[in-house]
Amino acid sequence: MDKRIYNGILIGILVISLALLFFSNVNAITGRATEGSTYSNVTIEKYLAIEMSPNLSAGIDFGTIETLGVDNYNATENYNGTSNSTLYWITVSEDSNTAVDLCTRANAPMANAGGAEIPLVNESFASNVTVSDLNDPSLSNAIDYTTNYQEGHFDVPVGNTSYWRFWLDAPLGQETGNYNNTIYFQGSNVGSGC
């Protein structure tokens, strides 16, 4: 075969190969979209918020005790609601995304300006999700306060309310004066403990 024909065939094959290569990559040249993928991830944390009733926010008031030796003296708002319901309540806010365990504690025994104290075990509480269950004046479900957080009401769903009542024992011989302490309430993730 003549060398010129052979070179012509090779050049022809090369031109055809380049043309095929050029036209096979037409998508990239004409700007057509290509596709890729990646991973998308998010972690939603538990968010919880609680709201106290105006009466509870204002304080747990036992009023004036004129006769000592009284046990289970009611806080002033224990039975002041409709049908003797309590005006002390805590609601799990609607913007929470999880149920809440409610816990409570006192900072110290109630004390007056002179330093006299009413023992902390003399102050007690009870809570429930239905007001009617708290209407029974029986104190069988009352819990004495301590300085450590303790169970108030567990697993209160978002948007639901926990109703509370408080009592005080005023012992004989208690020194006169205005006694107070601070009561704390805590909302925590269900099952995480107080």
Write the layout of secondary structure elements.
Blueprint (H helix, E strand, L loop, with lengths): L2 H22 L1 H5 L19 E3 L1 H5 L11 E5 L13 E5 L7 E7 L3 E2 L5 E2 L4 E6 L2 H4 L8 E2 L5 E7 L4 E10 L12 E7 L5
Antiparallel strand pairs: 1-3, 2-10, 3-10, 4-9, 4-11, 5-6, 7-8, 7-10
Task: Provide structural commentary.
The protein has 194 residues and is of the alpha+beta class. The protein has one domain. It has helices at 3-24, 26-30, 54-58, 131-134, and strands at 50-52, 70-74, 88-92, 100-106, 110-111, 117-118, 123-128, 143-144, 150-156, 161-170, 183-189. Strands 1, 2, 3, 7, 8 and 10 form a six-stranded antiparallel beta sheet that branches. The mean pLDDT is 84.
Sequence of secondary-structure elements? HHEHEEEEEEHEEEE
Compute the number of helices.
4
Mean pLDDT: 84
Structural class: alpha+beta
Rg of Cα set: 37 Å
Strand content: 25-35%
Which ranges are low-confidence, i.e. pLDDT below 50, for 5 or more consecutive residues?
none
Strand segment tally:
11
Q: What distance lies between the first and last C-alpha atoms, to the nearest angstrom?
A: 97 Å
What's the number of structural domains? 1
Helix content: 10-25%
Shape label: elongated
Q: How many strands, which pairing sense, and closed or not: the largest β-sheet?
A: 6 strands, antiparallel
